[in-house]
Fold each of these.
Amino acid sequence: MPSPKFQIFIYGVPALAIALLGLPLYVYLPTFYAQDVGLGVFGVGIALFFARIFDMLNDPFIGYLSDTYMSRKWMMLLGAVLLYVTFYALTHPLKESGIFYLLFLSIGVYAAWSLLSIPYYALSSDISNSYHENTHFSSSREFFNILGALLALVLPYYFHVAEDAGASLLVLWDALSIILPVTLVLFFLFLKESKRRKNSVSLVRVFQHFTLEMMESKRVFFAFFLNNFANAIPATLFLFFISLVVDAKDASGMLLLLYFGSGVLSLPLWILLSKKISKKTAWLISMGSASFFFFFVLFLGKGDIVYFSIITIFTGMSLGADIALPASIQTDIAQRATKKYGEISGTLFGFFAMLTKLSLAFGVGVSFVILGLVDFSAEAPSPKALFVLKLLYGALPLLLKLSAMIVLRKYQEK
């Protein structure tokens, strides 16, 4: 019988592969299709916005399917197979690829990612047994998540292609094609999936139960959306900001390593703090800390790489809490709702995934569309366009994160 600690460890392993998708899809892909493929920031922003809107509407239904008809593990396997096909095509575009090529393949990749990730996240509520154990499972997953993000950063840097979005995508495709099957084999062999009673309730009834839980926990849902929206904007605009505002494109890989490395190192401290106070309070502290240090981004200019590095380290220290603690609170909500209404944890995690994608859609859609409206050009940006870029990157995330803190403050943990 595997030990509980080993189960917690092995549960987190697939997140290593899932996280490899984050950087290419949200950092490299928009830049690659806007510049290298030649679709422009406005066209890419519109295509990715609608792809994510279309995809996010599927997530609660995918969660319902995992509650009702399919084993969580087998649904993950289906998602992995679809991911191979669509991510390959997206990173190896045809010569005449246009907006619709990007749109349809993005929808395919996001759907595959949902099939892989939603049942995976829902598994944590099936196999975890207590309030603090939820944090350990979510922290294991997010630890490997950050390691996967670090690996996604290191590989392009190691192969000296970090400044080339297209070449970076190819390197990350090669890595995913190896790491995904290896991690899933380990997961399938060694993780003991708890026996659970599959949902026999109709889809209409499940969504009625889900609506009741959503109303009860609406502050967490809304804070989660606002916080993710705040994080999505700098992720989308990072390469533009470091190249055009700080004028240090060659340092992009190093800065991202600093950010995610700080997140990995700080994760145990946030877990300890959440046990001493509460998950909600620790999350509020992390958002407040990130907001304070990120405020100084507004004063950066050309050559301020040292100051940007310091800001990156301190904001990165909040990363561990920013992803592990909301995920643990989500597991608490899913377990509580399942006890009241029956098996709806997959549906709830599908809704959390929908909120994440909605926030990311707003991040890339709002950022790229506004830049397009001021005739932003990465090759020769006007002073007006640079000013708008700086406000989008530095000021808007602060407003959103502070709003998330205000909303979360009145949430009552149970």
Amino acid sequence: MRKILFLFILGLFFVSCGNDMSTDETIYKPTPVTLEMPEIFKDKILPPLIPVDNPLTEEGIALGKKLFFDPILSGDGSQSCTGCHNQANAFAENRRFSIGIDKKEGTRNAMPIFNLAYNYREKFFWDGRAFDIENQAEGPVENPIEMHNSWKKAVESLKGSEEYLTLFKKAFGTDIITKELTVKAIAQFERTIVSANSKFDRYLLGKEELTFDERMGYTIFVSEEKGDCFHCHGSIENPLWTDNSFHNNGLDSVIVDIGLEEVTGNPGDRGKFKTPSLRNLKFSAPYMHDGRFATLDEVIAHYSEGLVFSKSIDPLMKSAYKGGVHLTSKEKSQLKAFLLALSDDSFVTNSEYGK
């Protein structure tokens, strides 16, 4: 009789455990999200790169978006990711150097954030020091010039929020908040930030016409004898408008900020910086890694008359020996018209990316 009673109780125990597990599984069912490629990207570039260990979900993206806009990760609770990456500026910043929570000024211009999921080279920041988007999202929290916090304190702040405990549970099925899950969520949101609706995109899709100057500007852009811009920034076959690689583009003869060399240790990489996308130049001034050029006219003037030689200058800067490609005033104007046609007005107001 005792044996029968024991087996009965044991059976109830396993039934109870099974019911609990079923309940947990019911709680943790994040909704998968497929990042659809824009029409202009199809058949031209590879599909978005989504890590196996961090698939996109509605809950993860929502959590990442909240974290992106929330100053809770900073040391004094005053600055969020949007402090340096503002949607109105194509998720860049309209000042030369970013200022962190201690009012200290950095030494580089904040890069825009869009189309990151299509960067198969998997190197981020101007000097390529981050090896994926998760790693890119991790750095600013502990950077002494930016958020100036520790991840331990940042995680403790998140744990103190009932709302975040719920959101992490929905996104990752756990009550344990960690640095790793936090950056995974931010990376999920950043992978969804896509810009692919510029005037030039619509022109290529047969939905809008370009002006004569915009068309001529593109001709100058892809001409070896004129603009010679396409080697680093691509052409109509590369809708990202960047090779996602690193180049010394003839800014300085004496290089103080060594760029990629700081990461690789290779003197041949001195003064090399990541090629930024030419999308959304209308919104993302100032330009270059150090924001030295306040206007697009200054950028064009640099390549036209301002190239200088250094030992590590990129071989693609073929006209450096004569100071630049020497465009006429009309050609400069037309090139600028084309470059501005790569800007996506709908992107900077898209509510999917806004707070």
